[in-house]
Every structure is written in C-alpha cells, then in structure tokens.
Design goal:
Elements lengths: L1 E5 L3 H12 L3 E5 L3 H8 L10 H10 L3 E4 L2 H5 L4 E4 L14 H13 L4 E5 L7 H12 L7 E5 L9 H6 L4 E4 L3 H10 L1 H5 L4 E4 L1 H32 L3 H9 L20 H14 L5 H25 L6 E5 L14 H11 L3 E5 L4 H7 L4 E2 L3 H5 L4 E4 L4 H4 L3 H7 L4 E4 L6 H6 L3 E3 L9
Parallel strand pairs: 1-2, 1-4, 2-3, 4-5, 5-6, 7-8, 9-10, 9-12, 10-11, 12-13, 13-14
Helix pairs in contact: 1-3, 5-6, 10-12, 10-13, 12-13, 13-14
This protein binds uridine-5'-diphosphate-glucuronic acid (UGA).
The site of uridine-5'-diphosphate-glucuronic acid (UGA) has 21 residues, from helix 10.
Length: about 450
Amino acid sequence: MRVGVIGTGHVGLITCVSLAEVGHQVAGTDSEAQKIADLQRGEAPFFEPGLQELLHQTTESGRLSFSCSAATAVADADVVFVCVGTPARASGEASLVAVEAAARDVARHATGPAVVVEKSTVPAGTSLSLKRTLRRERPDLGGRLEVVSNPEFLREGHAIEDALHPDRILIGAETDHAFGVMRRLYATFVAQGHPIIETDIQTAELAKHACNAFLALKISYANALARICERAGADVVAVADVMGSDPRIGRAFLNAGLGYGGYCFPKDIQAFQRLAGRLGYDFPLLSEIARINQEAVTAVVDKIREALWNLEDKRVALLGLSFKPGTDDIRFSPPLALARLLREEGATVVGYDPEAAANAKGELPELELAPDPYDAASGAHCAVVCTEWEEFKQLDLVRVRDALAYPILVDGRNIFEPDQVVAAGLSYHPTGRPPVEP
Ligand code: UGA
C-alpha cells in the first residue's frame, strides 16, 4: 500500500521504517528541513537501537523516501499517518496546532480517498475536529478522507522491536471500509500473531492516555512505597517482588528510583488530567502521580545531602543523563532535574552518559561532561546512578571507589546488590532499601 507519514520524530520515523520493512511504499515528510536532509543522507536524527540499520535497508530497497513536501507524502497515499508533536501548553493541555496543520496539508494535497490516521497521542475527541477540518477543506471528497485512531505503544530504546512485534495493534474507526484498510495495512503483523483490537475512535484515543497514566501510576506507587520503606527499614525491591508475584499486579513498572521522564508520561498525564477536567470529572489521582514523581528526585537530593552534609563546594558525579537506558533522549529527564537541584544548592555536577551527553549539555550548559564513568567519579564527593545503562551494571566498583574523593555511591535506580557495593569498600545508598556501610 502507499503510505504517507507526516512528522518524522520518534513515532513518525519508526512508523516509516517498520511499515516499509513489511513491504509498503512509504513517503515521510517533516517541517524541519534539517531533519529531512539528514534522513535523505541516510542518517537517523536520534539514537535508537537498530534504527540506523533499518533506515539504511528500507531506503536502499526503494520502499522508503523522505521529502520536505507534504504534497509528495500525501498525494496518492492510501493511508496518511499524522505523527506530529502534541507538546504541552502552559495549562498542561496538549497543543494540537501541529495536528490541525497536518490535517490541512492532507486536505490540500489528497488526490483521492484516503484513511487519515491519528498516531500522535491526542485527547479523546480530537478525531471529531480532525474530521470536521478535512470535510470543510475538501467538500469534494465528501467524507472519503476517513479518520482512524491508531495509537502507538512503542517504548523508546526498544522502538524498532516494539514496532515490528507489537503486543497489540489498536484501531479505532467508524466504518467497515476504514477497518478494512487498516487490517490490510497490518496484515503481515497479524499473520505473525500480533493481535488487532478494534474499537470506536474515542475509545482508542482514550485507551492510550489510560495506559500511560496507569504505567506512571505503578511507578509512582513504587516510589511512594520507597519513601515508606526508607522510614520503616524495609526493602522496596523485595516488596515489589512480592507484589509482582501476584499475576493480578505484575512486577513490571514497579521499580522505584528517580522516577519517570521522557516526552510521554509527564506530558500525557497532564493532558489527561486537563481532558478529564474539561469533561467535568475531577481526577486528582493524576496530579498525585506527578507529585510523587517529583518527590522521587528530591528524595535523592536528600540522600546526597544526608551523605555529604553541606552541598556547597561538593562535586557530584551523575552516571546516566538520559531519561532511561537505550536512548539519547533527555526530554523531562529526571537526571537533569536532579542536576539542576544540586546546582541550586551550590554543588558542582559532572555527568557521563554513553549516548545522551551532547543533548544534556545542550539543555544544561553548566553541566561538566566526563568521557567515561571513572573520569566522572574522579575527585567527586559521591557518584549517583541515574540511568540503568547496562554498562553501569558492569562497573569496576573498586576503581570507582579509588577515583572518588569520598567513597559514597547513591543508587537512584537500584542496579546493584548491597553486598557487592560494600565489598568494594563503598558506602551504599540505594532507593527504598536500607543504606549499608563497608
Ligand atoms: C512509554 C510507554 O511505556 C509506551 O508504551 C508508550 O508508547 C510511550 O510511553 C509513548 O506514549 O510514546 P517510554 O516513554 O519510551 O514509553 O518509556 P518507558 O519505558 O515507559 O519508561 C518511562 C519512564 O519510566 C522512564 O523514565 C523510566 O526510567 C521510568 N520507569 C519505568 C521507572 O522509573 N520505573 C519502572 O519500573 C519503569
């Protein structure tokens, strides 16, 4: 099938390569000329495991192309994906300005009937405005520009794997024709055993917010438990294991630490709360999730202060700057929130990250960068694990201890076992577990 993709960010670009990989003819477009120039040269504009290779493979095969022209992406397309950003307004509400602009682009350039897919995360009810815009702009197509909601559930750092092997493909549509087009589009995935769930459009839109908010709720629940475990002398990792052994709860997303970040959870929870408010339902649970998440960062500052006494003139090494492992994304990154708080209290902050260092420096120019974790630790008064990159789990902790000015390790992601750290001669301050001294 011929597929157009408007917006080549984290969601749009992965949509492009995965649909081209299963044999569709895909044309991507973006308003950022530099991004398109990079893609035309075959360069992925962000880091994601396997993306560079798949981009190369699918463009070489002739099934994927990029251009700055929305007309090229939209004209003759059977399906057009809207994958533009929906950033938060000051009120927390999602801004849908780019979604409307994309709808106008589709209307202006469509040469015939097409299915227009909302892939960006949007508040329930957005499809109604999208549909109205398409009809108003193209009365001649008489409603044959049909709107479908097909929310994306991929995780950064696993985006290619998730896109090619989705847990489920959610399709919200209004007509048999639109469902039929989407079934055909995803036929290869279904043949491989990946299920499609079909709903009405509002349900699909709302389900996306419901999933993200629930995952964030699990994380904040674990972080609130961590605060109580710290006061009670209990171990939050063991508590999460007990909870997770109940299949009704599940162990995933119960890891306490620095909390969630990234471009999805913080923004989606706010937008979901605004949507609820607009619909006349007070949903304070959502703001509580966000409050506990902020507390997860201040709790680590408290831990560092407790270990170092005054923070003025102390040097703190942050291991990991991205919001999670496997990505160079630093948007709403908890490690950067931590760096800001430490600097406000007078500490010097040095950071190391295998992928996100340059992005972090761009966001926080005062941050010192180190070329490796040992260099970051060198002369610092404590090291803090902020992102659970695999390479940190393999660290030579004796070398870390020797490099540090004070032998103190704060673990904001609980990646080590206490015995292992203490055996290396470090004083260990994990999250939601008792601290241990060598
Ligand atoms: C999230 C969802 O997991 C995806 O299903 C969804 O498609 C995506 O948002 C989106 O809406 O686009 P993502 O933001 O890539 O994906 O990252 P996650 O793996 O969900 O992690 C989010 C944050 O939670 C990270 O900062 C991570 O470190 C943190 N986290 C995760 C915890 O603090 N504890 C946990 O137990 C799990």
